[in-house]
Model the fold of this input.
Amino acid sequence: MTRKKKPAPKLKRVEITDSDGWTHITKGLKNTHLTTSSLPCSGTKIQPAPIPSGQTLTELQKTHAHYRTQWLASPSQQQIHDLFVREVLPSLNDPVAVKKQGIDRCVVLGLGSLSNGGRSSWWELVFLETVLSLLQPAASDTSSGPQDEGAPPIEIMIQDPVLNVMDHTFFSSLGYTVLADPMAFDEITESTLLFVPHLEVNVYAEALSKARPIMCAGTDVREYIDKADWRSGGERKESKEEAEKVEVFQRYMDATNSWPLPEFERDHWMCFTCIYSKKPNDADQDCQI
Done:
């Protein structure tokens, strides 16, 4: 009698937070349980994700095109477009977008590896491309001739310790700059679009403490401000460090308008994610913690 082969064990997405506060998405066995001993030791640096056998730049570009096509055909993409046109861009007090307010750069933190990661990273990337095209249409549409010299392209910088050589090559092909940790934090200014969906709380707070970016796409900061438990299974830890984080989030929330992202029918990454834009005529204040 021929025995049936056992099916391969199913994989699930696992989040691992390193000693620097970065949260990384990997795949593990369905019944895998992370314990303290399975996490990197204190001071251990997360290494770049391994490159899958046979992975090429051409394959990544095909995958990118696949996700972009699906995203552009989705109702969520149209909702995002309408939200920006009706509310987000006018809130910047300049519907044409970036000239008056001066968005000159985009800093992306914690996107994850595209060559060896989950599909959420791809959805986040094509969403980012939509946002950039809406902020600066001249930078993405050259069909009508040369770009307006008064609207230079927005410089896009990406940082995540898990990015490997193949990720670097792919992002370079898009014209993006990959920065080594922690260089990107010094690039965050008041003229920055900060792109940080579901970034770990410590890194999120550090990013917002560097400056008050004019726009941010990230986790709803009220999730951190209103959360009663800062550690599992206990009362809220009233430490100076955590109080300072709450203050950073509170200051940014007070200084910005915000809009929750709509539900996305293909993935959960938009949950608890908002677009923030600096309120017009908001007085410049020191946002350091």
